[in-house]
């Protein structure tokens, strides 16, 4: 395989650039003599994990739950709504413009309201993640379901194919690349939604922990929290990518 | 000889757009015998695609008569039409063989037999060994061959082709013309072939129907008395030139 060494080279370079960033970070802190409360070194950042008071495992679990719960809800309801739109044209005509308008609301601005209505905790923060990732999923899925080649419709019609056959064999698989494109955008947004929710009101989670250690100027713990939040996002994104690889052949994917 | 396989008499079709009636076909009358390969040639907007869609049962007609099938050649509109379009329109997420099987799935045909038939058809159109590839791994010409195999999978009596080689480069197109003739002779189907290529129409057709635009109407309908199998050398023959000149004249290009 001629392409194989090249792919390996590409991975190696990607890993190198990540390591390079950490090395640069280390050198910057050490050579610049930067105080720990401004910027901790990579080593000090990792050491923050050893403080038992910070209850890392529990906080990771809380934030992870918020992100995944909000995200999965958004996928289920987003795809579900888009399917209803494609089955009932009048529903799409009535509700779609409304969704486009609602999408203009900065979802983060709803945070204080969510706290008023639902208090704070895992549920409301998951709701925040949901609110922020629902729209890209429903909008891209609805678009994907609309994009059917007219000639393919003719082909199915000449064979007297049913609407269900059209849906399962052509419309739905044809929409999958769009679904995944929306899901990838939403995966990144879900993380931001949950963290903003924790900033606004919470008593647990990595976002909550960041506010706590901010007071004591434990910058290393804040760095660690940001890294862990990012890693949760990477895991979610990775799962979505893996699903896409399984379900959508290469040529049909949308970047 | 009994009734013709396809019979059109005084077919008229107009589209209404904002109150104006756009005449797509003013008066189409022709017969097609079973096993013929009839070329429908004309400029854009002459109603040739509309005519195919009427035959496919996709558009109702305003007046006239369309009959396909005869007591000797029974015709079931849902099972006896195969369609090939200008674009191959293969489903990107299906392997080539599963694309070919799509009509069989929709019609609920037995899958094991259909799968074996799909392999035979892919061999017939020259795609042996490509069954498990995805469409993006095929060239444009190969994709169109797969589309032809898909049109044949349910063993329809009538194949409707709407400028199937229009998007291919000139050399591939010539090659596909020869391939189509070979497939037609082996599969023994009735084919209606829409094109705006005049040499293509004459080269392929046992008969050529010429349509003119503005207003859309049928201008000519003649047999092409060139022997089969057709060869590329025939294109330079005097008789071939006569036929193409006849069409150019009708289309006001001479």
Explained architecture:
The complex is a heterodimer of chains A (255) and B (254). With 255 residues, chain A is mainly α. Chain A is 79% helix and 0% strand. Chain A contains ten helices and no strands. Chain A has helices spanning 3-31, 42-47, 56-87, 89-103, 111-118, 122-146, 150-158, 163-200, 206-215, 219-247. In chain A, helix 3 packs parallel to helix 6 (122-146). The mean pLDDT of chain A is 91. With 254 residues, chain B is α/β, with parallel strands linked by helices. Chain B is 33% helix and 25% strand. Chain B is built from eight helices and nine strands. Chain B has helices at 48-55, 96-100, 102-107, 111-124, 140-152, 170-187, 198-204, 238-250; strands at 6-17, 20-32, 37-41, 63-68, 81-84, 158-162, 190-195, 207-212, 217-223. In chain B, the strands form two sheets. A six-stranded mixed beta sheet of chain B has the order 5-6-7-3-8-9, sandwiched between helices. Chain B has a three-stranded antiparallel beta sheet with strand order 2-1-4, with helices on one face. The radius of gyration of chain B is 18 Å and the shape is globular. The mean pLDDT of chain B is 89.
Strand order of the largest sheet of chain B: 5-6-7-3-8-9
| Overall geometric form of chain B | globular
* N-end to C-end Cα span of chain B: 38 Å
Structural class of chain B: alpha/beta
Query: Oligomeric state of the chains?
Result: heterodimer
What distance separates the N and C termini of chain A? Answer: 25 Å
**Overall geometric form of chain A:** flat
Number of extended strands of chain A? 0
């Amino acid at each position: 395989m001629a392409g194989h060494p090249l792919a390996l080279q590409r991975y190696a370079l990607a890993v190198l650039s990540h390591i390079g960033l950490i090395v640069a970070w280390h050198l910057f802190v050490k050579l610049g003599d930067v105080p720990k409360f401004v910027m901790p070194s990579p080593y000090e950042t990792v050491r923050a994990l050893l403080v038992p008071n910070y209850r890392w495992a529990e906080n990771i679990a809380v934030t992870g739950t918020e992100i995944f719960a909000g995200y999965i809800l958004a996928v289920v309801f987003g795809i579900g709504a888009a399917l209803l739109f494609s089955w009932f044209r009048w529903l799409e005509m009535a509700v779609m413009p409304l969704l486009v308008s609602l999408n203009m609301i900065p979802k983060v601005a709803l945070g204080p309201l969510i706290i008023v209505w639902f208090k704070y905790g895992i549920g409301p923060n998951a709701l925040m993640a949901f609110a922020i990732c629902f729209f890209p999923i429903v909008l891209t899925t609805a678009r994907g379901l609309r994009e059917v080649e007219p000639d393919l419709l003719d082909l199915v019609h000449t064979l007297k194919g049913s609407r269900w056959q059209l849906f399962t064999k052509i419309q739905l698989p044809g929409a999958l690349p769009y679904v995944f494109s929306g899901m990838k955008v939403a995966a990144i947004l879900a993380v931001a939604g949950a963290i903003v929710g924790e900033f606004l009101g919470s008593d647990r989670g990595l976002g909550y922990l960041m506010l706590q250690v901010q007071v004591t100027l434990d910058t290393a713990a804040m760095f660690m929290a940001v890294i862990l939040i990012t890693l949760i996002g990477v895991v979610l994104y990775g799962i979505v990518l893996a699903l896409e690889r399984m379900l959508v052949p290469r040529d049909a994917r949308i970047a | 000889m009994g009734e013709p396989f396809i019979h059109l008499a005084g077919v008229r079709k107009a589209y209404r757009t904002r109150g104006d009636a756009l005449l797509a076909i003013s008066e189409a009358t022709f017969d097609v015998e079973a096993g013929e390969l009839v070329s429908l040639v004309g400029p854009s907007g002459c109603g040739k695609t509309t005519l195919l869609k009427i035959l496919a049962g996709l558009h109702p007609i305003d007046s006239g008569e369309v009959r396909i099938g005869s007591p000797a050649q029974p015709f079931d509109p849902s099972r006896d039409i195969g369609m090939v379009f200008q674009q191959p329109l293969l489903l990107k997420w299906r392997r080539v063989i599963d694309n070919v099987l799509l009509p069989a799935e929709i019609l609920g045909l037995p899958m094991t037999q259909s799968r074996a038939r799909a392999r035979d058809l892919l061999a017939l159109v020259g795609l042996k060994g490509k069954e498990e590839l995805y469409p993006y791994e095929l060239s444009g010409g190969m994709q169109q061959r797969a589309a032809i195999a898909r049109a044949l999978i349910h063993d329809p009596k009538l194949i409707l082709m709407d400028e199937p080689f229009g998007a291919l480069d000139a050399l591939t197109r010539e090659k596909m013309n020869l391939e189509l003739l070979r497939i037609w002779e082996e599969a023994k189907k009735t084919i209606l072939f829409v094109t705006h290529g005049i040499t293509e129409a004459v080269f392929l057709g046992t008969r050529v129907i010429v349509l003119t635009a503005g207003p859309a109407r049928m201008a000519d309908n003649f047999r092409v008395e060139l022997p089969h199998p057709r060869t590329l050398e025939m294109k330079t023959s005097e008789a071939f030139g006569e036929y193409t000149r006849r069409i150019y004249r009708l289309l006001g290009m001479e």
